[in-house]
Amino acid sequence: MNLTIHRGTKEIGGSCVEISTSNTRIIIDVGLPLVDQDREPFDRSTMRGKSVEQLIEDRIIPNVPGLFASGGTKPDAILLSHAHLDHVGLLKHTPAGIPVFATAGTSKMMLAGAVFAGQDLLPRVRHQIIEYQKPFKVGDITITPYAVDHSCFGSVAFLVEAEGKRLLYSGDLRWHGRKPGMIKSLVETVAPLQIDALVMEGTHFGSERPARKTEYVLENDIVEQIKAAPGLVLASFSPIDVDRLVTYLKAAMKSGRTFVADAYTAFVMHLLHKEINLPDPKTADCMKIYFNQSFQRRGIQKLIDMFSGNQIEFSEITSSPDKYVLCFRPSNLRLDFNGTLPPQSQVMYSYWHGYLGKPDWQAVQSAVEQANGNFTHRHTSGHIYVEDILKFVAGVNPKTVYPIHTFQASGFERMWSGRVVKLSDGRIIDLTKEETNG
């Protein structure tokens, strides 16, 4: 069994991993870069009008024969760990005949992203639904998906078995979210299996940051800020981060305010409320739905009709701003608030800090200042912290660790000298050979 990390050995995001035997090729994740060569947020607009060949030349798409590049045989399957663009964003550039294995949750989050965020669907004709802890086969490779807690609903890790070897692909995961039992269960399940290779995300290596707050502590902090807020509270977060959605919904309820979802957030709740403990947005008393101007322009009349029974008008929100927690995006500032926020507005920003340098977020911060309000970064990472990586690796106890999704693979070498192989993109590793940097 061979392992090739086509991209991800020296950067966070853009993940693309191949596992192959003499008979079968599978690809795990086909992600867009998260950052550019200057480590600034990657701008998708730079891809417009370019061919796949040009995108390969620009190193936006990895040069993988049969998957993106011409030549070579097509892979037998693509596996998606979750719906974030740095793991699925290149799917539309892959051959249509390759089946795509993903959870139903990943498909739903990609659907929501396609409707509201200009992203791409997982084509129904290609989608093979996978279920947690239920093994399936692709050729002579057996794959078992395990649910993990990440800042995207439907995320999984993959156990891959072939030719007498076992590889665990962590995907993106964390131990400090709302469901820490997921990662604990994963460790307990795979530890007795004698994992030969662990392909492990290391986002936080090199960040020099201690473990931050759990999702529950974050919720308490948000409750305190809402209770102290004299005016409108604006919550900025990704709706496919369902844990964060729950955090804001619960915080609003605990603070005696009404949570006002935008159409994107309401649609995610509609897709998921029957399978997890989310209110039905069409009827829930604890929330309302506001159709902001940006989303109304997207031709979502069917959704407007679906949610009309629980709709609130913008004038009602602005006439009593201290009663609401409103889902907010930078486009709302221009299209709904006409560039001016209500006095003493509180904006809670729950994204990666790297986006704050973008002009739209700078405009929001300026508007908050002019309103004599408050702009706070209320966030906790979707990625596992270093001390939890140590605990995870110790629990799984693999023979070899292969760092991925990190700018600092050397951090792994410092922790597990003799058990780490620090790869370069495109290097093929034969897992039947015991090879480490030690």
How are the elements arranged and paired?
Layout: E1 2-7, E2 16-20, E3 25-28, H1 52-57, E4 77-79, H2 85-88, E5 100-103, H3 104-116, E6 127-130, E7 136-138, E8 141-147, E9 156-162, E10 165-169, H4 180-190, E11 197-201, H5 215-228, E12 233-236, H6 242-254, E13 258-261, H7 263-272, E14 287-289, H8 293-296, H9 301-307, H10 314-319, E15 324-327, H11 330-335, E16 346-349, H12 359-370, E17 374-377, H13 386-396, E18 400-404, H14 410-415, E19 428-430
Helix pairs in contact: 3-7, 5-6
CATH homology superfamily name of the largest domain:
Ribonuclease Z/Hydroxyacylglutathione hydrolase-like
CATH topology of the largest domain: Metallo-beta-lactamase, Chain A
Low-confidence parts lasting 5 or more residues at pLDDT below 50? none
Radius of gyration, CA atoms, in whole angstroms: 22 Å
Structural domain count: 2
Q: Total strand count, please?
A: 19
Please give a structural write-up.
By secondary structure, the protein is an alpha/beta fold. The chain folds into two domains: 2-208 and 382-430, 4-Layer Sandwich (Metallo-beta-lactamase, Chain A), CATH 3.60.15; 215-377, Metallo-hydrolase/oxidoreductase (Rossmann fold), CATH 3.40.50.10710. It is 28% helix and 19% strand. It is built from 14 helices and 19 strands. The strands form three sheets. A seven-stranded mixed β-sheet has the order 6-5-4-3-2-1-19. A six-stranded mixed β-sheet has the order 7-8-9-10-11-18. The chain has a six-stranded parallel β-sheet with strand order 14-13-15-12-16-17. It is globular and about 70 Å long. It starts with a strand and ends in an 8-residue tail after the last strand.
